[in-house]
Amino acid sequence: MSRPLPTGFVLGAATSAFQIEGAADRRGETIWDRFIAQRGLPDDGRHACDHVDRVEQDLDLMAELGLEAYRFSVAWARVLPEGQGRPDPRGLGFYDRLVDGLLERGITPWLTLYHWDLPQHLEDVGGWRSRATVGRFTDYASLMADTLGDRVVNWITHNEPWVASMLGHRDGVFAPGGTDMTEALTVAHHLLVSHGAAAQAIRSRAPAARIAIAVDCRPAVPATDREPDVEATRHFDGFRNRWFLDPLFGLGYPEDMVATYSEQGRFDARPDGDGPVLEGDLELIAQPLDVLGLNYYTGIRMRAGSEEDETPEVLPGPNPPRGHTEMGWAIQPDVLHDFLLRLMRDYAPASVMITENGASFSDAPGPDGRVRDARRIAYLHGHLAAALDARAAGVPIEGHLTWSLLDNLEWTQGFAQRFGIVWVDHATQRRVVKDSGWWLRDAIAERRLPEPLEALEALEAERTGR
Ligand code: FCB
Known about the structure:
CATH architecture: Alpha-Beta Barrel
Number of domains: 1
Oligomer: single chain
Largest sheet: 8 strands, parallel, barrel
Strand content: 5-15%
CATH topology: TIM Barrel
Structural class: alpha/beta
Radius of gyration: 21 Å
Number of strands: 14
Bound molecules: beta-D-fucopyranose
Strand order of the largest sheet: 2-3-4-5-6-8-10-11
């Protein structure tokens, strides 16, 4: 039994610039180059997957899999090495060719403007803590719309503003490594304002553009029904989900969280008050969204006392317990389903695209060269089925983009975590399509979700038979 895919439901894959491009000698320095060097992390973005120099091969790979959509990000520092000023024609030319290459192969581009790789030059003058960066981002968005607006329809302004602001400025674990909650809230506000300003700039240059933002939701459920756990869950949800979704959908910052943060002296939400909010900002943030991008990996069970805590239930490792990926993330497709329904109830987005969803498992080629990543197939099957159930229940989900096309540089975890549907040997840059990649190919070609076991048998037969 396999489930048919509804007409028009789009399947594809996603990547981001810093994680795959390499060719760092042909772009400006970014906060991630600096952060990785400062922390002395073993893997960096100098070569990554060498995608810039292998773009034709990677495009052909996407065509072989029959991808209908491909989400990539533009490296700001490749088109504007200092984040502003004179564009580098080599950088613009690269994205120009990438987009043409996608369109020639019938693959719809989904372009992300900011996937965390701020040009270091802008960081040096205040980064996202500074309001001026909103202006720089809007100029950069305008440049990209002028260059690609005639061919790219789907524009994602930001990837995961929660991660960029909180992991990067509160927890110090992501670039640029800040550890101040007040600054992190300022950064979050500037990211949101820059989303709105960029949306306007893109629309004025490319009237057919569809504007999206990709938020990373971490749905939370209370560990017990005790009041303190319920309250901790509400707080976590405010911190992690509502703080971004409410203003994007015109509801302003959530009052309960504003009360908490202002009591703590961390955020003044009044326009022209002591905080970063200027008159008109909330209107700017709430530009009509054509598509809500949702990045979903796992949910969290909250206990009182651990609010604002991101500690996964198990530690990452090569042998995750059953039910977890190697990131230590619990596999919970039903949580995705329920969260999609809640999004509909609370925000009624015009459309939802699952802009990231996938799993880290380090299965490598066996003696026959094949990568038997059955656990990834099961993960994708389960989450796609959950998304289709939510769609059937009325959530306007237009598609699903698997994270990720290639095994790539998983930020601070380097090449150790493998999310690809294509295996990459990072020493030789050899690519091998995993079983999950073939599974996705079959899903697209046959317009149905092949059952994992059936699919594995078919792949076995394909290998030995045909
Ligand atoms: C998301 C990021 C993406 C990748 C996945 C695993 O938070 O957007 O770049 O790292 O997680």
